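seq as requested:
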Amino acid sequence: MTAYFARCVIAGAITLLVISSVIFLMIRLLPGDPARVIAGEMATEQDVALLRARLNLDKPLTVQYGIFLRELFHGNLGTSARTQLPVAEEVFARLPRTIRLAAVSMLIATLLGVPAGLVAAFRRYSIFDLLVSFGTLCGVSMPVYWLGLMLIVLFAVKLGWLPAAGADSFASVILPGITLAMYSIGLITRMTRASTLDVLCQDYIRTARAKGLPGSALVYRHVLRNVLIPVITTVGLQFGALLGGAVLTESVFGWPGMGLLLVDSIFSRDYPMIQGVVLVFSALVISMNLLVDVSYGYIDPRIRYS
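struct tokens:
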């Protein structure tokens, strides 16, 4: 387990290095002068030149990349060109809100998706199964921004039950949490249903039924334990995806998380902030994948790492 964990950490570090290189090159291929965008239209050419020198934009691309890697290896994500504050300070101030939104969304998706998938599998081809299949299809197909706007119109504007934006109270997380959870609900439900149907066809399930094992014991002792691995894989990967995919949801609901910070930084061409946010998002996704991989050995004793 220790050797496997060490290999995964090394692979994750290499992946982060590749991602940082890709992001560094991509944002510098954008058209326009970022120094002019940051300085504003009223800035003089001397002000723009000074800002360009401070951001190292007057140096060759290879030199800029070397400076970026040197600061990154020292744990320095740089200073925001827009706010003049350390990137790490701003990112980690927004990170708890993004994690809270993703956690609420994942909780909603798991509590709804797993039971719905189990019941749909046990009642295959029933009306409930057809409704679940139709609902999951809608969930994975519905655009996040459209669903978010519709929920705002209904529950915030028409009914006035929930706030339309902000993160001032627990009620503020309900609408963005449901919006962000819809795709995951569909995916987890479909995965749970497919995995359960596969388990129900196994010989040990037929033996348990022939022995007269009660339905609840059959579900908890035989079906659910064997369905856990693909379901946990889906939940873990989706949680990582939610952390990085909350950009549109946070923008629609004005949720002050890392997604909204990334959008604002892109519009203002804040290179250090864009790089810092994407790297933190990437590190979170890689960490979730590693956690899911390591958890397999504890869930199923038959799995051994070599």
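Residues 2-73 form one domain.
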